[in-house]
Fold:
Amino acid sequence: MDLISQIQGLGYSFGYAFVASFIYHFINRALIKIKLRVIRWVFQMILGSSFAFCYYYGLVMINEGVIKLYFIGVLVFGYLIYELYFNQYLIGVIDKMVKFVKYILLPIHFVFKRFNAIMKNTKRVMKWKRKEENHS
Structure:
């Protein structure tokens, strides 16, 4: 393996660890609301398998899929850098983005809640009329 492909592999490993950690934390925050641990476990297994496949596929494109020990070391180093320095900042950015999206979608949410209330009221009236017809 030549020096250029080794440097590309190291850069890819570091960048992939950074991006994969971000995506994992983002999806894990979404999965935390799922109460069944089995479903969360299955989602995390699928997510981990897809991360491993994407990492290996990227290495196949760069250097025919050769995995060296220092690639794994740089992968762990990228994960640690993300965890120690960027995790809290990016989670804060995600929270701000979610609040912004909720603010934008608030009118749509209001319309659907209002429509749902109208439909529930209509169902109650229909049940009441059916009871009157049955008793008559």
Summary: The longest helix spans residues 69-135. Residues 3-102 form one domain. The two ends are 90 Å apart (CA to CA).
